[in-house]
Amino acid sequence: MNHNQTLSLAPTGRRDAFIAEYGRHFGARRVELIVKSGRWMVEDHAEGAHIVDTDGRRYLDFFVSSGVFNLGHRHPAIMARMRAALETREFGNLLYFSEPKGELARLLARSAPGGLEVVLPTVSGSEAIDLALKLAMGFTGRQGVIHFDNSYHGSTGYSTAMGPSAVRSWAGIENRAFRQLPYGDIAALRGALDEGIAAVVVEPVRSNFDGLDPGPAFFAELRRLCDATGALMIVDEVVTGMGRLGTLWGAEHNRITPDIMVAAKGLSGGVFPLGAVLMRPAIIDCWTDHPYRSFSTYAWSNVGVEVAIAALEETRKILPAANAAGGLLEEALGILRRRHPGKITSVRRVGLIFAIDFNPERLRALEFATALYGRGVIIPPAAISMPTSPIARLLPPLILAREHVEEFLDKADDALGTLG
Ligand SMILES: Cc1ncc(COP(=O)(O)O)c(C=O)c1O
Fold first, then answer.
1. Is 409 found in the same domain as 395?
2. Which range is least confidently modeled, 58-67, 139-148, 289-298, 330-339?
3. pLDDT for position 4
4. From the alpha carbon of 154, which atom of ligand 1 is closest?
5. 154 lines ligand 1 (CB under 6 A)
6. Does any domain span residue 3?
7. Which of 45, 95, 278, 308 is the 20 to 30 A CA-CA neighbour of 187?
8. Could you say which DSSP state residue 7 is in?
9. Are residues 60 and 44 in the same domain?
10. Nearest CA to ligand 1 atom 7
11. Is 145 helix (H, G, I), strand (E, B) or coil?
12. CA–centroid distance, residue 58 to ligand 1 (Å)
């Protein structure tokens, strides 16, 4: 199949009509920037590995909203479970339990690294990170937090305090109790952990920047230092979880035993927002004076819970095939590297997360993402922390198949031919 048909980004019917009609409601200046980026669409429908916009353009989705569509779009088993759930279920009262909530909590606890028996519900990843930090502070009676550079943990209170400095300063959430360290740097860890630290927030692999994998030794030393100082280790599995690193949780990949684990995105099955905070049972006991010290009205809708159960089941089933297909994409990146010498300096893969290092003299991630977009492929735009980064990432869905790899290779080859 010839995939090299360049899509026209000239003004077209429905996409531009949308902006004329509604653009100002999304902030006119903001929308102008989005349109100027060349990477935007008005989505119409999606199926499998593709999204189709309102002008009928079809895009291969190697971004998957950073993990929301790990199972692709509208996975049949997810849609069936959701339809069935809607026959009898609704949100449910925010204070009460239900059988599906019990089942999801048990499945999550059993799937997670050892001893994380207790599960609290959230809607989003940011909310789950904030809850995890509140628990760590309540449990330890401390407020110090260590986090790592070029990592993203969300857009609410505490999660923003660990985010890009521009956002921190205009939002006035420069928190002096929060300290950023270089990711993967064992010596820096040794110098920073002490009895003032409530928690260290860390991803198993740096998913939102360069896919850097610090390896098990880093996490073993982090575990040792946390035990020695009484700090809690919070592992953010919002992106690395639900199969992304080739294992159900990224913690398995790097043999991590956290005190608290945060999950979201992929748990949604792409159709219902849902997050979770898993922890050692002792941690929740700092709340025994009141069982609802922190709660969230829309957390764990009974419909969403059914979907998350199906998402867990399907992710487990699909992992072997996904890992094999990841090997094909790795080969394709090797071909691109050989065909475009001097532009790509290296490629990295951990499970189903891929990073391409461009020669910064020749190419930036954003240029590549824009050129791919014009050809009908979506990849993550660039790290929020570093928009000029020369590192492009690919997050294909786990339903990845040979035909998707071929489509990507043809289009990326064509795009690279015109760049740098
Ligand atoms: C690693 C990581 N943690 C947390 C979050 C926050 O999740 P949410 O956008 O669901 O609030 C994100 C979002 O992209 C993320 O990438």
1. yes
2. 289-298
3. 46
4. 6
5. yes
6. no
7. 278
8. P
9. yes
10. 125
11. strand
12. 26
